[in-house]
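Deliverable D2.4 — example input (structure tokens):
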């Protein structure tokens, strides 16, 4: 059926649904079911048409009318994490992929430079930090830096610093992404040099078991924060069919929502670094017998990696396919 004929056959009915309200529960149910059928047909044959958006808005309006008096604070929060946020990440998967590839490139650049230039690690990490690490290695306590202060103080300091840096990474997008790119470059170079330093000392595997206990979430969160910054930058530089101001508002709104997902990850990483990494590092301290078993360290690392890949990469793709196959689910999400 041609779109014009489809509209001609149903326009009168849709106008009635829009302008003639009813309080009869049976009529409301019939209207909602009819609109779902029309929406399913329209999305199949005219997915980008204005009529599809019109039908969708009518169905959403009825859905909201039915559920507007229900307490939804808790369910709204659940739906945000279950549907809205994963679909938002799916929308920006390309930006996330490019951010990840840029980060890896900078890390490899740091590793290559460290291999070719003996003083590169000192130039990046600082002579004092390198000297302290080498001294700890000679003492048989290569990861002693994680035991230099109380656990709680360490947690507060790390959490505050990481949230602050994350905010700067996102805000850097306002300056056409230059600020975000600089912080991504700086932290990637630091990580590459830091990791190479331990591999060069023959402590590569040990460093993975210790550092990446918290580093899996911390570094992943940092990449997500930079992704949010680049989303803002893209909304400024490439508004597409939107006005530049509207594009910026949409980009900032998406970036803020992404930040909401990253804060719990940052706090969890700070907790792991303060309380769990400490126990894991004891496994390589010859002066203590209190340590985290290696299988437990591997399990925490693997679980963190699985969560990040599943929730931010795989699940959004699966959810998108579910929404395309189920118009009612799409309405439920859009009505929130």
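Example output (designed residues):
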């Amino acid at each position: 059926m041609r779109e014009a004929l489809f509209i001609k056959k149903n326009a009168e009915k849709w106008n009635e649904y829009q302008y003639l309200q009813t309080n009869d529960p049976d009529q409301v149910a019939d209207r909602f079911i009819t609109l779902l059928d029309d929406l399913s047909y329209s999305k199949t044959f005219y997915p980008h048409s204005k009529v599809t958006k019109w039908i969708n808005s009518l169905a959403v309006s009825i859905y909201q009318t039915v559920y507007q008096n229900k307490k939804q604070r808790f369910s709204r929060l659940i739906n945000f994490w279950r549907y809205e946020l994963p679909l938002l990440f799916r929308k920006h998967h390309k930006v996330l992929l490019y951010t990840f590839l840029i980060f890896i490139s900078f890390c490899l650049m740091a590793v290559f430079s460290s291999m070719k230039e003996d003083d590169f690690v000192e130039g990046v990490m600082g002579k004092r930090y390198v000297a302290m690490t080498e001294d700890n290695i000679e003492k048989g306590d290569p990861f002693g830096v994680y035991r230099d202060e109380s656990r709680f103080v360490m947690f507060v300091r790390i959490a505050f610093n990481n949230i602050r840096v994350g905010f700067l990474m996102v805000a850097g997008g306002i300056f056409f992404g230059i600020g975000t790119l600089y912080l991504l470059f700086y932290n990637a170079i630091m990580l590459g040099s830091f990791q190479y330093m331990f591999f060069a000392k023959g402590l590569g595997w040990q460093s993975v078991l210790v550092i990446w206990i918290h580093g899996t979430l911390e570094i992943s969160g940092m990449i997500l924060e930079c992704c949010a910054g680049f989303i803002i930058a893209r909304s400024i530089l490439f508004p597409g069919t939107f006005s530049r101001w509207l594009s910026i508002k949409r980009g900032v709104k998406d970036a803020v929502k992404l930040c909401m997902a990253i804060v719990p990850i940052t706090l969890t990483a700070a907790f792991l670094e303060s309380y769990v990494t400490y126990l894991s590092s004891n496994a390589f301290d010859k002066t203590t017998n209190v340590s985290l078993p290696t299988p437990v360290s591997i399990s925490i690392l693997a679980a963190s990696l699985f969560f990040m890949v599943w929730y931010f990469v795989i699940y959004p793709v699966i959810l998108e396919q579910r929404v395309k196959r189920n118009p009612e689910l799409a309405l439920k999400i859009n009505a929130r």
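Residues 3-70 form one domain.
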